[in-house]
Structures are given as structure tokens and as C-alpha cells.
Design goal:
Blueprint: E1 4-10, H1 14-25, E2 32-36, H2 74-80, H3 84-88, H4 97-109, E3 115-117, E4 121-127, E5 135-140, E6 145-153, E7 158-159, E8 173-175, H5 179-185, E9 198-202, H6 206-218, E10 223-227, H7 248-256, H8 259-269, H9 279-294, E11 300-303, E12 306-313, E13 318-324, E14 330-335, E15 337-340, E16 344-345, E17 392-395, H10 400-403, H11 414-428
Parallel strand pairs: 1-2, 1-6, 2-3, 6-17, 8-15, 9-10, 9-15, 10-11
Antiparallel strand pairs: 4-5, 5-6, 7-16, 12-13, 13-14
Bound molecules: flavin-adenine dinucleotide (FAD).
Length: 430
Amino acid sequence: MTHCHDVLGIGFGPANLALAIALEEEGHDLDAHFLEARPGPSWQSAMMLDGSDIQNHPVRDLVSLRNPRSRYSFINFLFETGRLLEHLNVPMEFPLRKEYAQYVTWAAGHFGRLVDYGAHVTGVAVDRQAEGGPVYTVTTSAGDTHRARALVVGTGRSPFIPAPFDAVDSPRVFHLTRYLPALRELGVAGEGHSTPRAVTVIGGSQSAVELTLDLARRFPRARVTTLARSLTLRLKDTSPFSEEGYFPGFTDYYYRAPRDRKDAIDSYLRLTNYSSADGDVLQELYRLIYEQRLDGDQRVFVSGSRQVRSLEVRDDGVLLDVEELNTGETEEHEADFVVLATGFRDLGPAAHQERVPALLRDVADEFVFDNHGYLTVEQDYEVRPLDADTPALFLNGLCESTHGIGDAGSFSLLSLRAKVIAEGLRKSLP
Ligand SMILES: Cc1cc2nc3c(=O)[nH]c(=O)nc-3n(C[C@H](O)[C@H](O)[C@H](O)COP(=O)(O)OP(=O)(O)OC[C@H]3O[C@@H](n4cnc5c(N)ncnc54)[C@H](O)[C@@H]3O)c2cc1C
């Protein structure tokens, strides 16, 4: 019989890594194990773009809000790798994403004994016949089975692929979470690479702007077009008052609000994280386009109020049929490939959301949904079961629809959330 862990964590990204650290530092003596699909520790490796910086204050790292004395802080990483002083001297407001990824990898390296890498979980079930009471059984694509008395799902959100792209299966159309590997597969990155003639980015987010800049740098002779549904590219809401949406007190306040007020809060805070970009990248992009126009050689274009109505994938590229939303006029765009910066799916009943994380579809009926169709998640991130004897299931980093913008998959609050989940696990595992 397979060993039964106290806790199995699915995914070992920043959220479950922060949990592993909290379990160690807060003295919870639980047998926790993690399954991670990637071959080794990494963070957003498909979007490791030259020059990109992080979107969170670096001190809002894996640990510091919970335990500023932790050895797993970003500052201690810089200290232990001999870069602290040099780093503080870099003329940048926020650290490079590359450096933060190194930090995450460094921290994860301390917990290798707790993680199976290359373990892609494909199934989750409740075994009610197990000796000693119901437990979870988790299966991987390699056919391995793992058992645990509690589960923490920290898989990150699923990419959102809107129509008409959702009906297309082609290496020429891909979500940003596959950006760098997809370029290599298309033969436009890596040794002896070819150069595309035209590329299209779909979206108006921070990632869309970063991708546009990256493509313009990589392929200076290519035509790079960004199509956004919004009127044009917008500045992020960085008001320090709005930023209080990323305070733990705000999470509690949001949690208690009824659904219609949650919706109102969401639409107000949306621009702090979605459909908007930081001033530095917007300014860089605007300057680039202006200079190209000045040189009479514009190759980068931003077109707002555009909706792709249909697309045709051909042998040598993609043909997009695009509507200008305010005039109703249509235009055709040809591209060698299309990058979708179209965001992620949150939990919920709407078409752009998902009812439960994809991995939990087979056990969804074990849990309570509210009158609006949202999964009922307790304040400590445990999903409310229908039967009291269902083993505990926690969601780590997937609860924006119940806990608000601070839970939008970012670093902002994950160290504090890890403490709450660690305490919840302790309570549910007597
Ligand atoms: C390009 C990009 C840049 C970002 N930059 C920032 C930033 O600067 N600051 C910020 O605060 N947030 C940023 N974010 C938000 C991001 O969600 C968080 O930084 C962070 O990655 C969230 O951690 P997580 O562990 O919840 O999810 P993830 O980082 O997505 O980690 C989830 C892990 O689960 C694994 N996994 C998924 N499914 C399975 C499965 N079935 N079986 C086994 N393992 C599985 C994945 O391989 C992955 O390693 C960025 C997001 C993107 C896409």
C-alpha cells in the first residue's frame, strides 16, 4: 500500500513553496509532500524576457510579511549569493524578473527533499474505503499514485483562451505561458533561427506590452501588431489607496462582502492588475513607435477597439479577420504567429471562468457551491465539503473570486496566506 502523507501539495510554484517554508518555520510537524509537473524549480520561465521587471514590491516575497527574519527572504538570497550591495545599486525601481526567478529557484532548492519534479498530476479522487477513513488518491501522467489525508492545490490559474482562438490547435497560435518554448518550436528563436515577417499580439495587459517590446527587439525587421479590445493601452492604477486592496485586512473585508458588492469592488480594482500596464513599458513602447514614424519606417503598431472575429491557419501563417468595434469596419491581418496575452481563468460560473480548478473536475460534486454558482471556500482557504468526512482540500493562489484581488495569483500576500493554510491544515489533521 502506498504511503499516506498528511498533506500533498499539487504544484510547487511560489504559492506552495511559501507553504512548505511556513510549515517548516511555524513548527507544524506535518508530513507534507509536493508534486510538480516541471522538471525542476522555476518561475514563469516561458516569460523570462530581457529587461522585464517584477510587478510586486520585492519585500513582498515568499516569507517576509509573515516572518521578516526568515532565511528564505529575497534580501537574504541576495546576501547569500553575494549580490546585496550591487543589487541595491541597480538603477531600477523593481528587480529584474530574471533575478526574482533565481530567488524562487534558490528557495525551492532548499526543499528538494519534499518535491517530486516531473510529476504531472492528472487525476484526483477520494478513496472512502481506506483504512482509518477517507483519503485523497492522486495520480500522475506516469501512472504513479500518491495518497494523503489533505490536499493543497497550488497549480496557478488556467490560461484563458477566448473565442475564436479556443477552436484552433496550431503551434502558430499560443498563450503567453508558452511564449519562449513556442518560439523555439517555430524555429524563430535559438540557434540558426529564422525571422518572422509579421507577428500579432492579442491583449492590452502588462504582458501584452512586454511581449510587443520583446518581439520588436528580437525581430527588428518584422511587423509587430498589438490588437486590444479596449480603446487603447491603459496605465495601471498604482494609487497607494487602491494598492490597499493587497492588504490582508482588505482580504477579510472582501471575503465578508455579498456577491454584488464583490463585483463592484472587482470592477474598481481591476486596473491595479488587469487590462493595464506600468508606465515604464508604456512609455518605452510609445517612444519606439514615435521614433519609427520619425524615421518613416513604422513596424510596431498598436490598434485598440479591435476584436478578432475569425482566423484561418495556413501553412505559412495565420489570417485574422478583425472588427473595429466602434466603426464596425473589418480588416485582415496576416501574421506568422499569434501570441495570446488574454489572461487567466478565475473560479466562477461565467464563461471566462472555471467552476473548479480543472484538476478537481472529478471531485467537484464533493463540495458546496453558493447560490451564485461559486465554489464555497472558507476564510482559511479550505473548500467546504458536502460530507463532514471528506478529507480537507485547500486552494492556494486560486481564490480571487472569494478572497479578492490580493489572491489574484500574485506574490503580494502569499507568505501570509501560507500561514493561514498551514494553520488550517494543522486544525483539520488532528
Ligand atoms: C508572465 C508573468 C509574470 C508575472 N509576474 C509577476 C510579478 O512580477 N509579481 C507578482 O506578484 N506576480 C506575478 N505574476 C503572477 C503569478 O501568478 C505569480 O507570480 C506566481 O507565479 C503565482 O504562484 P503560484 O504558485 O500560485 O502559481 P504558478 O507560479 O503558476 O505555479 C504553479 C505550479 O504548479 C505546477 N502545476 C500546474 N498544474 C500541475 C499539475 N497538474 N501537476 C503538477 N504540477 C502542476 C506548475 O508547473 C507550476 O510550477 C506573473 C504571472 C505571469 C504569467
